[in-house]
Amino acid sequence: MFHVVTGGSGSGKSAFAEEIICKYHRESIADGSAGNLIYVATMIPYGEETMQKIHRHQMMREKKGFFTMECYTGLERLSKSVFFQKDPEKPCILLECMSNLTANEIYEPDGAGIHAAEKILQGIKDLKQMSCHLVIVTNEVCSDSAEDSKEMKFYKQVLSKVNRDMAEMADRVTEVVYGIPVTVKGKSFRNMKEGAAGKEMGQKETLRMVVGGAYQGKRKFAEKLYGNLHWVNGESCPLEEVYTCEGIYHFEKYIRRMLKEGREFKGLADSIARNNPGLVILVDEIGCGLVPADAFERKFREQAGRICTELAERSLRVDRVVCGVGIPLKNEEKRI
């Protein structure tokens, strides 16, 4: 099984990818064909911000039984390592993240440079052949409007080429939107979210969300679905009004304001769900595209993704609006 997982910044794609590779591994154990459970890390540890991300991912997979292998370049050489040769059974492999590996291959001195796509795809084919199950996490980096430098344009072209070819090879492709898996190719995995840790802890689903790109008609869709509400603008409303209004739009800008003011985010989703049940939240998806160069913008994008993922988990219904058309991601009448 080859499964590609994509999504925006802070979307919950890493947690989902870990969940499914562990599921595949358990199934392999039941079949008596399980090799090692391997995590291939591609992020080069440099700088405090990067180290914090690495530590966070280490904590996420702690006690899950992963063997971690670092691979910053030369994926095609990984399958030939002694570690793999010693394993009598085919391993279950999670590689994260393809966007980092691609950047490393292009820009690092020992990388493949202009041959990055060719080398990476050969490495993927090798891993696919020698693994029982392979899950690769990637990013969608082309959904922004900023004008690219020559170097960034080449990076986008290479990663897009790798993503397209991976998707063609894959048995399953899943986009994760605020923690909700959306099937792009293959069998649906949406029902995996039922019985998740948050639900076991007694979290109540009380909210409703409408998400999508800018100017897609989210508010018109929400008003058609939920009627005329008392709306507030997340860009300008008093921060406390999120607990009293019926609907809030530009919630991503509400998060930006909280971050600028140094407000505490821990427990925010629980607090909103508990104190304002029934709230309708409209939010622009801002997690795709290239990682911002500005440190605040990076933190904002990541924080917005994580908070909205927590809110979606506490929502009865989540719809995604594209060109004015609502696509149900999570439905209160029928759990999907």
TrEMBL record:
UniProt keyword rRNA processing, yes or no: no
Source organism superkingdom: Bacteria
Keywords in alphabetical order: ATP-binding, Cobalamin biosynthesis, GTP-binding, Kinase, Nucleotide-binding, Nucleotidyltransferase, Transferase
EC number in record: 2.7.1.156, 2.7.7.62
KW Nucleotide-binding (keyword) present: yes
CDD domains, alphabetized: CobU
EC main group: transferase
BP GO annotations: cobalamin biosynthetic process
A Gene Ontology molecular function term of the record: GTP binding
Pfam hit, one: CobU
Pathway as given in its UniProt record: Cofactor biosynthesis; adenosylcobalamin biosynthesis; adenosylcobalamin from cob(II)yrinate a,c-diamide: step 5/7; Cofactor biosynthesis; adenosylcobalamin biosynthesis; adenosylcobalamin from cob(II)yrinate a,c-diamide: step 6/7
Catalysed reaction, written as an equation: adenosylcob(III)inamide phosphate + GTP + H(+) = adenosylcob(III)inamide-GDP + diphosphate; adenosylcob(III)inamide + GTP = adenosylcob(III)inamide phosphate + GDP + H(+); adenosylcob(III)inamide + ATP = adenosylcob(III)inamide phosphate + ADP + H(+)
PANTHER family (alphabetical): BIFUNCTIONAL ADENOSYLCOBALAMIN BIOSYNTHESIS PROTEIN COBU, PTHR34848
Entry's family note: Belongs to the CobU/CobP family.
Biological role: Catalyzes ATP-dependent phosphorylation of adenosylcobinamide and addition of GMP to adenosylcobinamide phosphate.
Protein name (record): Adenosylcobinamide kinase
Originating species: Faecalicatena contorta
